[in-house]
Design a protein that fits this description.
Largest sheet: 7 strands, mixed
Distance between the termini: 10 Å
Helix content: 40-55%
Mean pLDDT: 93
Bound molecules: adenosine-5'-triphosphate, magnesium ion
Low-confidence stretches: none
Number of strands: 7
Number of helices: 11
Shape: globular
Strand order of the largest sheet: 3-4-2-5-1-6-7
Structural class: alpha/beta
Amino acid sequence: MSKVIAVANQKGGVGKTTTAFNLGTGLAEQGKKVLLIDSDPQGSLTISMGYQEPDKLEETLFEIITMTTNEEKVPEGFAILHYKDNVDLIPANISLSSVEVSLASAFCRESILKSYVEQVKDSYDYVIIDCMPSLGVLTVNAFTSADSVLIPVQAAYLPVKGLQQLLKTICAVKRKLNRGLYIEGILLTMVDGRTTYAKEIANQVTSVYGKTIPVFPTEIPLSVRAAETSALAKSIYEYDPKGKAAKAYLSLTKEVLAHGSK
Ligand code: ATP
Ligand code: MG
């Protein structure tokens, strides 16, 4: 049985892409077969997996969504790049930005990605979707396709208000489009262990949301090494295997594995 996880937060720069990449490669290191889907026209995940010029790629999520919207069959293996053993990537580039408009009038517009994901997911143990920083139609498509949502929250500001909007959208998708959708957990990222402020934010998130939403026991520390990986096409386990960020992402991976499929 495969599991589809959307990594989402409409707030920009909170560690979604870094988490999608290092959770995906982490699951692969634990023997799972993983498909990462870049669902952001910025193509950050695509770039961080080694495709420095995503705009030159001709087969991307955009073509998959266009074909699916037009009820054309997506050829087997189309747009799927092999990053390394057990890890595949569907890339994205700037062309994806036009999808927000073209999907607006499409029939069943919230379920286009789902109908594609349903076709390929049985070849994988995990499908991880890196969402863009918005709650637009692409992110709603990711929620409709997913079993669960993982929410990275940067422990450096008061996230309460933005989170409420995100949770409302997840609830709306659950009510109308995907009854089984649940929250995998809130993940605190870029936690600066040296400041008491970061601890206060962590405590606050747990006290405000912890009763209704799982908060991962693992926190991702602020780490220059983690920031550097974005430009190197290397996971944190390859780049700095003994560092604190690699340890944290490994322990997150194990927590996600322990959650199982449902
Ligand atoms: P966007 O909303 O633009 O898609 P994002 O939520 O995907 O952003 P990332 O791209 O993963 O966020 O991270 C934002 C920036 O923070 C990047 O430059 C990344 O290298 C850096 N970063 C990510 N995780 C950490 C960390 N644990 N410590 C320090 N820097 C980090
Ligand atoms: Mg991103």
